[in-house]
Structures are given as structure tokens and as C-alpha cells.
Amino acid sequence: MSETLEFQAEARQLLQLMVHSIYSNKDVFLRELISNASDALDKLRIASLVDKDLDADTTDLHIALETDRSARTLSVRDNGIGMSREDVVGLIGTIARSGTAELLRKLKETQDGTGSPELIGQFGVGFYATFMVADKVTLTTRRAGESTGTRWESAGEGTYTIEEVEGLPPGTTVTVHLKPEDAEDKLFDYTAEWKIREIVKRYSDFISWPIRLTTERVGEDEAVVSEIQTLNSMKALWARPRAEVDEAEYVEFYKHISHDWAEPLETVHMRAEGTFEYEALLFLPTHAPFDLHMRDGRRGVQLYVKRVFIMDDCEALMPHYLRFVKGVVDAHDLSLNISREILQQDRQIQSVRRKLVKKILTTVRDLMTAAPEKYTTFWTEFGRAVKEGLLEDPDNRELILDLVSAASTHDADAPTTLRAYVERMKDGQKDIYYMTGDSRSMIENSPHMEAFRSKGFEVLILTDPIDEVWVDQVMQYDGKPLQSIAKGQVDLDAGAEKSEAEKQEEETQREHFGPLLGWLGETLADQVKEVRLSARLTTSPACIVGDTMDMTPTLEKMYRAMGQEVPHVKRILEINPEHPLVLRLQAAQAAGKDETEVAELLYGTALLAEGGELADPARFARLLADRLATTL
């Protein structure tokens, strides 16, 4: 019995975009179908190695292309793993992966998708690309080991039909019923032999399975003769010497494995020989994938053993912070049925991983001098992810720190590396100064910056959420301690010899303000752990700082947002002994006046100045309004 079902809501929207949008390159649909067929063949090969009882013929795995010019159809057939009815409904009838909504947004942002057809491949829904050229698509499939097959058909208008079919060969066949209007344009005649050859050569020449095209020619006796020709070279690109590979081949291979529409930023082709041999062909993308910072985001390195595909997303080969790296690693001496669990413990794989990571990081470091524009693109797109490695990969921490680029007060327009910061440090400066925060403007306008700006000390401006975490773990760079300007004591005159008069003046000041500091400490005991005179303020009356080893308020919030209970950390209130408000408050306190409300306002304004949140905003507003009223 045939059953008619509706597409998932987002799939219907996607189909409408496919059918009604105009694309500059429709050829992408055939690339996607061939890629899907190749994946099915890979899966059958692995399944047959793992399950010796699987009833499957793997002696001639291939992809077949067949055309019917009179019926205007193009069929892509494979004898791979095939699909069950549940697979068809789950994989074709719906889009069973995150990212669909993001795809729809991207397509709509590009004028309903015009000019950006390759977004389809990027988001892994290449099957739907067939509706760019088809007014109907028919899919027949039978899963290896099962006796009953499935037939699926849709015109791409919101519904599809599905039914069980007997007598199907194993594997999958997708028949594209081409739109009549494309027959008038020879550039989009997908029943033409030359067109199919062109697409396969451009996109799929490196597919490891034979792609065969059945063609017809007129023989000497004028009889029509059918011929089967293999269109692709099937050469493993990573196994060829780099000198023998054209740059265009690298680009097309990258697009094939990544489903990206842009060229790679950089290519890394390496070969290791000796006790454990392997080849690796890795790519740094030009832009970040949509799921780079999603919890279930995919990794990009595939594992092969002796040219046989083993697994996608091989976590054992690339650490999480380099999850954006795409490519292939082909090992010569691993078992074909190796599992993810075994890989995690395999010493040889761990050695390969270390070498791959080192090579990727040194490649990026080389870009800093050889191709600064490429490095800037890389860090803009992937810097936030790479900084995760400062926590995950202590063995390569120094190398990762060499790559770190951050905004600073040195130049409002261009970021700086840590190396460049160290080279600009003032004579006698021992620390690398930084401040974390939500935005550059908030940090630059913070009271903590006043003395540093006044004395010409450069401060790194760190605004990524990950910055809050790694600066607490990384204590130094190139022998120079990293010091938050919002933490601990600050002495920007360290190393300068003070006269006896200056020392005496400081001592007198401490004695003069001692009673005020003690009173403020008692009055604000619920909010702060200490009140002291500040050396970092020049124009503001007060600021709030943390102890050297204290957790920052932002980090506190991050841990709580993740469900981790952490104790509230009281901080330190620093006051500016030269500010008129502090001087008047000192005089009032010495005269015995109760200025508790002023103390609350002083603390509240300091908290607001650093972007903090008041515990009782309504009370603060009322106190402020009352004080303003008495001064008018």
C-alpha cells in the first residue's frame, strides 16, 4: 500500500526555497547525489567487515549513472548499504539534524538563496538540491540484509508517497525527473553525456569508488550499442606526492569532504614513514561552520585504513579545540574494524594526533609572517575555539599563546599578538596587563583603566567568554606574568626609587584616611571584604577590584549558568584619596556625621561603572534621587 505523508515543517520551507529560487550553479545536485552514494558504499564495506554474516555482495561496489533523453530522467544508482523504510522517513522525509533553521536563515539572507547554492551542501541536506532541477524525484532502496525494499516519491510540494516494494536490488537509486524548461538550455541538459562528464571530473574525480556512465553509440552495422565507461580516476589525492597535485584538485577535494562553498584557507599535506605509516591531507577552512560552538557540533577529520573508509568525525585524531579542521588521515597498519573506544587508547593514534596538532598550530604560526591576511582571517573565524586549547592542551600551551591575538589600548583598529605586546613593554614593566569584560567600550571606560592610560601602559582588552576562563589558568607568557588590572594591588611605579619625602607622604595619607577606611569597611561589610586606598584611580572616586586569586563575577555567573554552585566572592572597594567626594566624605565622617547613604551610593556607582548589577536597584535610585534633590 502506498502512503502519503507530509514533510516536516522546516523541510517544506526548504523545498519551497529550492523550487522557487534561482541558482547560479545547479550542477551541485549531482555532486551531492554522488557523494551520498559514495557514503553508502563506504558504509556497506565497513558493515561487511564487522558483520561476517551480513548477506551482501561487495565484489563490485560502484556508482552507476544512467540517462533517458526521451523521458528526461537522470538516475544515480549505488549497490551500497541501502535504507530501510524507517531510514527513508527519518533521513529523507525530515531533516533529522540541527542546523536546518540556520540554513533557512542563511538562504533568506542571500536574497532567498540566489547566488549561494553551495549552502545546501554546507548544511548536509544535499538530497534536497535535486529539486532545483527536478519536478519529481523517485527513490528506491533496499537495505543490506533485508528482503523488502522501499519506494519514495515527491514533487517537492510538501508531501511525499512511500510504499514497500518487492524484488529491488540492494542499494539505492535516485531518479531525477528533470524539469522540461531545462531542456531548452544546453548548459543545464543533465541528460547530455558531456555535461555529466564535466560535473564528475570537476567534483568527484577523487571518489574512491568507480562512477560508471552507461552510454549508447551507433555501431558499424548501424545497430545501437550500449557502453559502460568509468568517469573518475579514483586516485586517493592524499596518497599522491604534493608536487603532482594541482591546487584546483585540493580545492575540489576540500569542497567534497566539507560540503563548503568557499575555497580552503590553507592546505596541509603530510606523509609519515617508519614504524607507523600514514598520510594526512588536512584543510583550514576560510570561515567558521554554523555549528562551531554548538555542543553537538561535528568534527571534520575522516579516518581511512589502507584507502578504506573507517569513520567520520574521528575524535581520536583531532582535539576538540581544532574541531574545525577538515580532511583525511589514511593509516596503513590499523585494523579495519577498529572502534572509537580502541582508537582512544591506541598509542600509535595518539602519536599521530600529537603530530597533526603540532603541524596545524605551526602552520597557523607560519601564516602570521608569511600571509598575515590569512592569519587575520583564521583568528577572526576560529580564535575563540583555539583559545579553548589553552585549557585542554597544556602540552601545546606555549605554541597556542604564540597564536593568540587580542584587542589592546595600543591601537584601536588593529589587534595585537602577545609577542608584539611583550616587545612594546615599557622599561621596568614586569607584567602583561589585561582586563576582561563584555565589550571594548565597557573596558576602555572602566575606572580600572585610569592610571594605566595616564602612565601609558598598554592593556589587553579581552571580551570573549572563554577569556574569563583561560586567563585564570595561564599564569605567564614568555616569562612575563599575566596581570588583571581589576585584581590585586597595583603599583605602576614599581622599580622607581621613592624619596623619603614621598614615603612620608604616603604614610601620612594612610594614617589620615585610616578612620574612613575602617568606617566604610564596617558600613559595607555585607558587600565588600576590604576597603583601601587606590593607586589605579585618577578621576573616579572609587572602583571595585578582586583579590589576586579570586574568581571574577563574570566567571561566577558562567559557572552558575552551567548549574555549578559556587560561593559568592566578596571583593575590595578602592577609593581615590584625591577625589572631592572622598575628601568630603572623610571630613563628614571625622565630624561625626552619619553618611551611610553616601557610602552605599559610592559603592553602587563603583559597581555600575564596571558593568555590575546592583542588589537593590530601587533603593539605589531612591537614595540618588534624594541626594540630588538636596543639592538643587
Can you tell me about this structure?
It is a single chain. With 632 residues, this protein is α+β, with helices and mostly antiparallel strands. It folds into four domains: 3-230, Heat Shock Protein 90 (2-Layer Sandwich); 237-377, Ribosomal Protein S5, domain 2 (2-Layer Sandwich); 404-484, Rossmann fold, CATH 3.40.50.11260; 507-547 and 562-631, Four Helix Bundle (Hemerythrin (Met), subunit A). Helices cover 37% and strands 21% of the residues. The longest helix has 24 residues, at 347-370. The termini are far apart. 35% of the residues are buried. Residues 111-124 have low confidence and may be disordered.
At CATH level 3, the topology of the largest domain is: Heat Shock Protein 90
Task: Characterize the main sheet.
Answer: 9 strands, mixed
Cα shape? elongated
- CATH uppermost class of the largest domain: Alpha Beta
- Mean pLDDT across all amino acids: 86
Total count of domains = 4
Sheet with most strands: strand arrangement? 1-6-5-4-7-3-2-8-9
Residue fraction in strands: 15-25%
End-to-end distance, in Å? Answer: 86 Å
Structural class: alpha+beta
Radius of gyration: 33 Å
> What is the β-strand count?
23
Number of helices, where a helix is a run of at least 4 consecutive DSSP H or I residues: 21
Poorly predicted runs? 111-124
Oligomeric grouping of the chains? single chain
Portion of residues within helices: 25-40%
**CATH architecture heading of the largest domain:** 2-Layer Sandwich
**CATH homologous superfamily caption of the largest domain:** Histidine kinase-like ATPase, C-terminal domain
